[in-house]
Structures are given as structure tokens and as C-alpha cells.
Design a protein that fits this description.
The protein is α+β, with helices and mostly antiparallel strands. It contains three helices and three strands. The longest helix has 15 residues. The mean pLDDT is 85.
Length: 99
């Protein structure tokens, strides 16, 4: 599955960097990106009639790994978090003594 996560257009609207997220391993991501790059002319022709711009930007596809990186960071945080039920009695949310 491919999702467009962001589009960054140049100030003159001649170029547009399309950041995509691809579900799958590295091989699947590389294959999906290659397919998008190969099809960029076709995709450009398909969106052209729907945009009311003087110049339709050329599309440059790039992988966006932010979602995977955020998931890794969240997994690390989750392994460090101590559930409330495991805290010693009398300690608050940030470890202060409530007694």
C-alpha cells in the first residue's frame, strides 16, 4: 500500500517533491518507488486536467520513512515505560512521594 504523506512544491511551481510511505519491507519499498518514478509521466498526465494552474509541476517521488521512524521511537518509549500498577505504593506520576 502506498500513501502520499506530503507534497512540497517549489516556489515557481515547476517541481513538486512527492513524499510517499510504502507498507512493506525495504525491497517492496524500493520496487514501489521505482514504479512511481517510471509512471511519473502518466501520473502527471492524469492529474493535469484536474489542476487549474498555469504550469503543472514535474513530479519527483521520494520515500518518506518518518512513519517507520516514529513507530521505532514509540516502541522504544513503550519498552521504557513503567505501568502505573508496577510503581511502588505512595509514588505519584513522576516519582514524587505522596506520603
Amino acid at each position: 500500500m502506498i500513501s502520499i504523506t506530503e507534497v512540497q512544491a517549489s516556489p515557481d511551481m515547476h517541481q513538486a517533491r512527492v513524499l510517499v510511505s510504502v507498507m512493506g519491507d525495504e525491497k517492496e519499498q524500493t520496487a514501489a518507488l521505482a514504479a512511481l518514478i517510471h509512471s511519473s509521466g502518466y501520473i502527471w498526465r492524469q492529474i493535469r486536467p484536474h489542476l487549474k494552474l498555469r504550469s503543472i509541476p514535474q513530479l519527483e517521488f521520494r520515500l518518506d520513512n518518518r512513519i517507520a521512524e516514529e513507530r521505532e521511537i514509540q516502541d522504544l518509549i513503550d519498552t521504557l515505560a513503567v505501568p502505573i500498577t508496577e510503581r511502588p505504593a505512595g509514588e505519584g506520576a513522576e516519582g514524587e512521594n505522596l506520603a
